[in-house]
Design goal:
With 171 residues, the protein is of the alpha+beta class. It has five helices and nine strands; from the N terminus they run E-H-H-E-E-E-H-E-H-E-E-E-E-H. Helix 1 packs antiparallel against helix 2. The chain is globular, with a radius of gyration of 15 Å.
Length: 171
């Protein structure tokens, strides 16, 4: 990434830009149900948006966003989070902004004492952050290679993952 950026928590003034950003970022994504912005809005509305960060340029313009929310895992202690969605303006994608947001978000989660993080996504992308598939971790029949975890503390996390109701309400 060769452009200067800063990553900070979202503010109330960022909410509308974040909504448009997420909608634009997922507009042409074939595996998307295009409900990502609604999910983030509902997580925010219900106080379940555990960590919400924006990447901003030197002028303060928002370039990307990442959200984390608490999840429960059938056979794990509380303290686990789910990553997603992560969104970058289409014209700024493939420049390292998503990677910077994921790295910073994971760093902050671990610093806040989270047990770990799960993600549903491409193993080729998320393995670079230390995520790994675990056949003992499941989510609604999704092939287990797409269900990945990153433990910040040595502990087991197995069984079915449950996300906040916002993920179902927007479906």
């Amino acid at each position: 990434m060769d452009r200067p950026l800063r990553i900070r928590p979202e503010t109330h003034a960022d909410v509308e830009v974040i909504r448009v950003l997420i909608e634009k970022a997922f507009h042409d994504v074939s595996h998307s149900d295009h409900k990502e912005a609604e999910i983030v809005d509902e997580l925010r509305r219900t106080g379940a948006l555990g960590l919400s960060l924006v990447a901003i340029d030197a002028d303060g313009g928002i370039m990307g966003h990442i959200a984390f929310s608490a999840v429960s895992i059938e056979d794990a202690e509380s303290g686990w989070y789910g990553l997603g969605p992560v969104a970058v303006w289409p014209e700024l994608q493939r420049q390292g902004l998503g990677t910077a947001l994921v790295n910073e978000g994971l760093r902050r989660l671990e610093g806040q004492g989270a047990k770990g993080c799960v993600v549903l996504g491409d193993p080729a992308f998320y393995s670079r952050f230390g995520f790994a598939s675990d056949p003992a971790l499941t989510y609604r029949g999704l092939p287990t290679r797409y269900v990945q975890k990153l433990a910040f503390q040595p502990q087991e996390a197995t069984g079915e993952i449950s996300y906040h109701a916002a993920f179902d309400a927007a479906a």
